[in-house]
Automatic annotation (TrEMBL):
PANTHER family: FE-S PROTEIN MATURATION AUXILIARY FACTOR YITW (PTHR42831). This is Metal-sulfur cluster biosynthetic enzyme. InterPro entries: Fe-S_Maturation_MIP18, FSCA_dom_sf, MIP18-like. Residues 11-77 form the MIP18 family-like domain.
């Protein structure tokens, strides 16, 4: 069973996850809108990250998982990524900061 994180804890973890870059786009996974939910998995005593990718066929899940482990080191002892495909990701999920980053990288937004 999963429980809700406190707003302060949610913000702390979300801030750490901004260090995880999407390997293909070079923008962090938070500002790309890839994080759908953060909760605490009470049964496994671990952070549960529900997230998606820009495409279901992305071969770089291992890279994202490794970067997530590095970003969360010292913040949580354990985490699990729940890969979610519904609703599908779309560019409307990108934050304003993410759009700025993408424009800086040469994408037209």
């Amino acid at each position: 069973m999963a429980s809700t994180l406190s707003p302060q804890r949610f913000d702390e973890i979300e801030d750490k996850l901004k260090d995880v870059m999407d390997p293909e786009l070079g923008v962090n996974i938070v500002d790309l809108g890839l994080i759908y939910d953060l909760a605490w998995d009470d049964e496994n005593d671990a952070l549960l990250i529900s997230m998606t990718l820009t495409s279901a066929g992305c071969p770089l899940t291992d890279v994202i998982e490794e970067e997530t482990a590095q970003a969360l080191d010292g913040t949580v002892e354990q985490f699990r990524i729940n890969w979610v495909w519904m609703p599908p990701w779309g560019p409307e999920k990108i934050t304003d900061d993410g759009r700025e980053m993408m424009r800086a990288l040469g994408f037209s937004m």
